[in-house]
TrEMBL record:
Keyword Lipoprotein assigned: no
Keyword field: Oxidoreductase
InterPro entries: NAD(P)-bd_dom_sf, SDR_fam
Protein's UniProt name: Short chain dehydrogenase/reductase family oxidoreductase
Organism: Nitratireductor pacificus pht-3B
Cellular component, GO annotation: membrane
UniProt-recorded Gene Ontology molecular function terms: oxidoreductase activity
Cross-referenced SUPFAM superfamilies: NAD(P)-binding Rossmann-fold domains
Keyword Oxidoreductase part of the UniProt annotation: yes
Signal peptide boundaries: none
Pfam family, one: adh_short
């Protein structure tokens, strides 16, 4: 966590799950948090848990990544809160599991738009604030469902395709950011057990053995490792599992 104090960190999908774990871990590191999500009550609960851990009270921003107008409003709100953003964690997404029944149009559009359109538009909108940072990082939380030849298993085709597109987004960002100070970092987790830094199972997660499965802590620590590397280093991290790393994580909305 060294070197993260006072950095401005925007986390999407911060109301629960992996996003909440990011929020609490970055709070402990002394970061200034801007937490984004669809449900204000969830964000407020995470903020209450994060505030005693750090030295800054988190700022909260309503954000529905599946809605372009919500993304625009969130960008304006973030611009009003800070002159720069040091770390953008593109964690928010929508989950859609496999089903024998036809999917609603809204469910399919929501999964694709949140993961791809919303993630791109938010990153694009915040780029001026990232350019204003001396150490800007864009972290995209994908899934090993997005890797080539990943087995579909229990996920829907729209989710599978959306996560493949997020891998392409991170690669496209890396190429677009070439020649600038911004790094594009991609982490592809497997299915994760939900643990948080303010709960006892977070400590236990650090002592798991091979074959016991991944947790939120694994992803948070991978991201912290990546963003604290020298600026000459940029990483793509695939967090595997003993079954071949074929299970995607359930994301936070």
């Amino acid at each position: 966590m060294d070197g993260l104090a006072d950095k401005v960190v925007v986390v999407t999908g911060a109301g629960r799950g992996l996003g909440a774990a990011f929020a609490l871990a970055f709070a402990e590191a002394g970061c200034r948090l801007i937490l984004c999500g669809r449900r204000m009550a969830d964000l407020e609960a995470v903020a209450r848990a994060a505030a005693p851990l750090g030295k800054h009270d988190p700022e909260l921003v309503m954000l529905d990544l599946a809605d372009a107008s919500s993304v625009r409003d969130a960008v304006k709100r973030i611009e009003a809160l800070t002159p720069h953003v040091d770390i953008l964690v593109n964690n928010g997404a929508m989950w859609l599991e496999a089903s024998a029944e036809p999917y609603d149009d809204a469910a399919v559009l929501g999964v694709i738009n949140a993961a791809v359109t919303g993630t791109f538009l938010l990153t694009q909108g915040l780029r001026p604030l990232l350019n204003a940072s001396t150490t800007p990082d864009v972290v995209t939380i994908g899934s090993i469902s997005g890797l080539t030849n990943a087995v579909l298993q229990s996920v829907s085709v729209p989710f599978y395709a959306a996560k493949r597109a997020q891998v392409a987004l991170a690669d496209g960002f890396a190429q677009t950011f070439a020649g600038t100070a911004i790094r594009s970092i991609l982490v592809n987790p497997p299915y994760l057990d939900d643990v948080r830094p303010d709960q006892p199972d977070w400590q236990a997660a650090g002592h798991r053995r091979k074959g016991e499965g991944g947790t939120n802590r694994d992803v948070v620590e991978a991201v912290v490792f990546a963003v604290t590397r020298p600026r000459s280093v940029s990483l793509t991290i695939d967090i595997g599992s003993d079954d071949g790393g074929l299970f995607p994580y359930p994301p936070a909305g």
